[in-house]
Design brief:
mainly alpha
Length: 420
């Protein structure tokens, strides 16, 4: 247990990042709009993406380097490709998570009523997030999010079991859900799987966080200890995605109600899903927990993009002897992430459906690039120079190959329906 606590961190950070948009937003929307029709997609995405995230922890623990360093070993072309994928998706992803978090912040503190500036919550969120990471207080948030994550986990479980006990608000067994294979609905299906539990290209973050945890704790865990810690966070987040689908299906599907398009109104509706089942007494607990977990997601997102940009920038533009001379590369990457994400939110803020559109764009882009990252991650941990005793077992091989086929097939299917 003592060694486990020293290892604890990267898996919880992963779970908190995943619980953000993919769970609070997409899973709830799936249940509210389609009932349990999309449960198979959520289950498949969680199961078949698992190996590619696990390989981040596996590679970092075994080699002492990140997946990004592994991409360098594949070839400079892969490093540049990862760089382009990151730049091409990071601003939309940051904007999407920022919009959701700002909505929960506005719902909790009522900031929009204090000013005519509609995006005031976004401005405050980005300023505070950048400030915390700039002065190196991420360790405090790392500790806080473990507490908040536990509160949200048990409150979600409570709401989930109460909803099961009370039953659905409408007779969902007699309701015919929308045709998911309709062109318009396929877009949501791909977006749902794109961030379930999160984007595959963010697997590099897990490797970076694993290395950072080893550095800050001063303890080098065994591979088994590292994987056990990651598995805990991953499968908790997978289970919670089922809980959010159930809440959406039982409390909204077939009632004629829809999830709002605005970030603040959406946050209010998500919180009401809890209070409708648990009682009004739970409002402040749920509102504070929802905002806190989304705030932790934002912190993790900014930190993850900054770390990955810093490392890929070092490998592309700097000599190894010049690396880690100061914190400027990290801070530069941090502010690029923040400014770019804010500009995307600002551009979409005038669109009545901008919040929903932003989420769908970010998640769809993540899904389309997933097959490439998945294949490379698998290749790294099965290469001849990777220690044989640390390579994945037969089940992971089967899941990896199936996952690559699954991600590739659905990406091609989406492109076919979209353009042909």
């Amino acid at each position: 247990m003592k060694n486990f606590l020293k290892t604890l961190g990267p898996g919880i950070l992963f779970a908190s990042t995943a619980i953000g948009v993919s769970h609070l937003v997409q899973s709830t929307r799936a249940g509210a709009g389609y009932g349990f029709t999309l449960l198979w997609a959520i289950a498949l995405a969680n199961i078949l993406k698992f190996p590619f995230f696990e390989y981040g922890s596996r590679y970092a623990n075994t080699t002492g380097t990140s997946l990004i360093d592994g991409y360098k070993k594949i070839g400079n072309w892969m490093l540049y490709l990862y760089f382009l994928i990151t730049i091409g998706t990071m601003f939309f992803v940051t904007a999407a998570v920022g919009a959701v978090t700002a909505g929960f912040m506005d719902n909790l503190f009522g900031l929009s009523s204090l000013s005519n500036i509609k995006i005031l919550p976004v401005i405050l969120l980005f300023v505070v997030t950048l400030g915390i990471l700039s002065i190196g207080k991420f360790e405090i948030l790392d500790s806080m999010i473990k507490v908040v994550g536990i509160v949200l986990f048990f409150s979600t479980l409570m709401a989930f079991f109460i909803a099961l006990y009370r039953g659905p608000s409408a007779n969902i067994s007699s309701i015919v859900p929308p045709d998911i294979w309709d062109t318009a609905n396929i877009t949501f299906l791909i977006a749902l799987m794109g961030w379930m539990p999160t984007a595959v290209d963010l697997s590099t973050w897990n490797s970076l966080w694993t290395l950072e945890r080893i550095k800050t704790s001063g303890y080098k865990p065994t591979l088994k200890e590292t994987l056990r810690e990651f598995n805990l966070g991953y499968w908790i987040s997978a289970f919670l995605s089922i809980c959010f689908v159930t809440l959406g299906a039982y409390l909204m599907f077939g009632t004629g109600k829809e999830m709002p398009n605005g970030s603040a109104s959406f946050a209010s509706k998500v919180i009401s899903l809890y209070t409708d089942t648990m009682g009004d007494w739970s409002y402040w607990i749920i509102a504070a927990s929802g905002f806190s977990i989304m705030f932790g997601t934002s912190i993790g997102l900014f930190d993850g993009y900054a770390r990955s940009l810093e490392r890929v920038g070092e490998l592309i533009f700097l000599k190894e002897s010049d690396v880690h001379q100061n914190k400027k590369p990290y801070l530069t990457a941090l502010f690029i992430t923040g400014i770019g994400g804010f500009m995307v939110i600002w551009l979409f803020s005038g669109n009545p459906r901008g919040f929903k559109l932003l989420i769908d764009i970010a998640t769809t882009l993540s899904f389309l690039v997933a097959p490439i990252i998945a294949f490379i991650n698998y290749r790294l941990v099965t290469a001849e120079d990777f220690p044989s005793d640390a390579r994945p077992g037969l089940l992971m091989h089967i899941l990896s190959i199936t996952g690559i086929i699954f991600l590739t097939g659905f990406s091609l299917f989406y492109l076919w329906t979209k353009f042909f």
